[in-house]
């Protein structure tokens, strides 16, 4: 058996071993574990509709934390964005959805959901709001009621930042711009 030491003589390694011994005998309930250590919920494949890929995402995100980005239409100040998204959060709270809200810009907010299975229902609520320009969920952008006419394209991907003028001038010699790898090599 290991030699007994006085507790005052313990160093960090001894304390770590002692903590491991205590945790080994501990019975931690599954609900108390952090989300990344919990086992994933079993997926019932009979509920999946092959015509709707969103049904698969709903089932795989159930019970997991998920974030969605919401853009407020018009040109609101940060205070207006705070007030508008606060109203939306209150409406969702009254409908028993656990949503936290974080303002990330003058017209953008993040809605964090404890249970990602409800994300598509919340997205449907948000895009029907008058001041909602768009909702970004799992990489998909869903235009809202407040979107401009040129933005109303269902499920478009997030637009890239505007290209610099010199990049546009380089590509203006007839080369088609896309995301595919080409066999031609371009010199920079």
From TrEMBL:
Stored Pfam families: Mesd (PF10185)
Family matches, as InterPro entries: MESD (IPR019330)
Domain of life: Eukaryota
GO molecular function: low-density lipoprotein particle receptor binding
GO BP terms: protein folding; Wnt signaling pathway
Localization in the cell: Endoplasmic reticulum
Keyword flag Coiled coil: no
CC annotations in GO: endoplasmic reticulum
Subcellular location, principal: endoplasmic reticulum
Compositionally skewed regions (Acidic residues) per UniProt: 23-32
Compositionally biased residues, Basic and acidic residues: 148-188
Residues covered by region (Disordered): 21-45, 140-188
Keyword vocabulary terms for this entry: Chaperone, Endoplasmic reticulum, Signal, Wnt signaling pathway
Entry-linked Gene3D superfamilies: 3.30.70.260, 6.10.250.640
Family: Belongs to the MESD family.
UniProt protein name: LRP chaperone MESD
Originating species: Phainopepla nitens
Origin organism lineage: Eukaryota, Metazoa, Chordata, Craniata, Vertebrata
